[in-house]
Amino acid sequence: MTKTVYLDNNATTMVDPKVFEAMKPYFCELYGNPSSMHKFGGQVAKAVEKAREQVKNFLGANDSKEIIFTASGSEGDNMAIRGILEANKNKKHIITTKIEHPAVLNVYKYLEKQGYEVTYLGVDSLGNLDLNELKNAITDDTALVSMMYANNETGVILPVEKAAKLVKQINPKIKFHVDAVQAAGKIKIDVKNTDIDLLSIAGHKIHAPKGIGALYVKTGTLLPAFIIGGHQERGKRAGTENVPYIVGLGEACEIAQNALDYEMTEVKRLRDKLENGIVKSIYNAKVNGATENRVPNTTNIGFQYIEGELILLHLSDLGICASSGSACTSGSLEPSHVLKSMGVPFESLHGSIRFSLSRFTTEAEIDYVLKVLPDVITKLNGISPYQKELNRLKAQFNH
Amino acid sequence: MWDYTEKVMDHYKNPRNVGEIENPSAVGEAGSLVCGDALKLYLKVDENDVITDAKFQTFGCGSAVASSSVLTEMLKGMTIEDASKITNQQIADALGGLPPQKMHCSVMGHEALESAIANYKGEDVAAHCDEKIICTCYHVTESALREAVEQNNLTDLEDVMNYTKAGGACGQCHVAIQKIIDEIKNKKEKVDIKNMSVTQLVLKINNVIEKYISNELRKDGGDIELIDVKENKVFVSLKGMCKSCKFSSNTLKNFVEASLKEHISPDIEVIEV
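^ Those are the sequences you sent over. The predicted structure of the assembly is below.
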C-alpha cells in the first residue's frame, strides 16, 4: 500500500488527535443535556460555553453571545443570508461575487427564483476584486452584501474588511456577511472593530470533525430563528446541542489560533517550495491566481494541454491526494467557475490542480511530490494531441 | 471518485497505441480544447481496406483516454466497412462499461472514428459543419444528437447530457433536445417488428437486455441469455440464481417481457428454453 500524501486540505482536514481527545469524554461519560437542571448536565453546559468562548477568541468577537453553533459552513451561510433577507423583507437586492462557493451560489439561484435580484461582482485575472465595482452596485434596494474571505480554489484573499467599511459608509443599514470557511485557521480573523455583521466558519476545514460549524452574528444584528423549537443558541437555532462536536470545534479553534504563526511561516514555506519546485521543473505548469495576496496553504496550478482528472487519477495511484477544477471531476461538464471568472485560458483551465497543505504536511511529503510529479506530467504530455503547442512551451521554457 | 472498471483503469494507466502515425491513411478528430476533451485518431489502411495500424492522442479524463485506447485495439485488423459499424456502446462495452456521466467519452471515440472514415473515403468533413447546431456551448449538431439518442435508446435529458455533453453548460437548448428525444421516442413506438430484419431485431433485443434487464438480474446473482428470435417470439435462457428461482416465470413475464415490450414492440412474446 502506498503512503497517503494528503494535499487536499481545502476539501477537508484530518481531525487533530488533541481535538479528538477533548471530544471523547462527551460521548459516554459526560453525556448530560446542557439544558438540564442537575449538576451532571450543568457541567456539560459549561463545556459548551467554554467552546463558545474559544470560538469567540478565535474570531476576535466582542462577546461569546455573538457565536451560534451550526452543523456546517453551508448552514451558517444559509442562516446568515436567508435570515438577513427575512428580517429585511422590503429589500430585494443582494450583492455577492462570481467566485463564491457553490454552497452559497446555489442559495442565490434559489433566491433569484423567489424574486430577488443578485449582482455578481467579477474578479480580475489574479482573482482580485474591484471595490469600485462594489460601490457602483449598491442601490437603495440592497439588503445584503455577502462574500468569501478566501477563495477555496485559488486561496486568493478578498478585501472583506475594506469592502464592509465601504458598504457601511454608503448605507449602514446594509448587512455584510463573510463566508470565512477557507480563511479560518489560515489567516488571522479579527471581526472586532470591523464592519462585518456576520461570518461563518466550518469545523472540518480547521481539524475539527465534519458536521460542526459556527456563525458569528454581531450584537444588534436582527436575525430570525433558523430552526424553530427550544431556547438553544439563544433561540436562533433550536435543537439539543451537539456537545462533543461543539467541544471539538472550540478546541480546534484554540489550537488553530496558536498555530497561525506556524501556518503563515512554515506551511507557507512548504507551499512555496512545492509551487516553485513544480513551475521550475515542469515546462507546462503555470500558477493560477495571485501569488501574493493568498492564504498560505493553497496553490492552484494549471498544467497546460493535459486534463485535470487524468492527472488526479495518476497522482492518486501514487498516494497523492489533490483536487481539480476540471469539468470531468465534477460530473457537471462545466469546468471551475472560479478559474473561468478569472479568465484562465482553456488550455490551463481543464488541467488545473489544487494542492492544499495543512500544519500536518511534512517536508518529506512535499519532496516526494516534487520527485514523482514531473514523470507523471511527462507521461501525460505524451498522450496529448497538442504536441505542437507543448513543444512551443518547452522551447520557451528552455530559452 | 468515479466507479471505473478494472479495464478502464488499465487503459488509462497503460494506454495502448499512443502517438501519431507517419503518413497516415486517415486522420479523425473530435472534441476541442474548449470542451475539455479532444481526440485525434490516426489510421493506416492497406489496399484491401483493412486497418493495419491505429494510434491516438487524447486530451481528456481517464475514461476519454481509456475509450480512445480500447478503440485503437478494436480497430486493428478490421476492415473499414466493419469499423464503420462500431457504435459508442461497443466502445463502452469493451471497457466493461463506463459511468453514465462518462458515456460522452465513448461518443467522442465514435465521432473521431466517423471522422477518420470520412477522411479515408475522401468525404468532405467540412460539409458537416453546415449542420444545425443545437448546443452552441459544446457545438453538438442535430444529427449528432439524433444519432446518440437513437443508438443508445436515450430517453431523458440527463442521459443525453451524459452521452453528448449537449445541454450541460448554459442549458438554453434543453427544450430543443427534449423535442428531439420525444420525436425519436414517438417514432420508435410505431416500429413494426415485422418490418425489421432479424439482425436488426436481435441487436435491438440485445441492447435492451444489456441496458435494462441484465444489470437488474445480476444484482440478484442471475443473468439472461438470448437464444433465438423467430418473428415475434424471443427465446431466452435464464442463468445463475434466476434459473433455480421459484419466481422465474414471474421475472420472465413481468420484467423481461415487459421491458422488451416497452422498448421494442408490444407484440413481443418471451419464451424460456
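The interface with chain B takes residues 305-310, 313-314, 317, 326-329, 331-335, 346-347, 350, 382-387 of chain A (CB under 8 Å). Residues 243-281 of chain A form the longest helix (39 residues).

Shout if you want it in another format.
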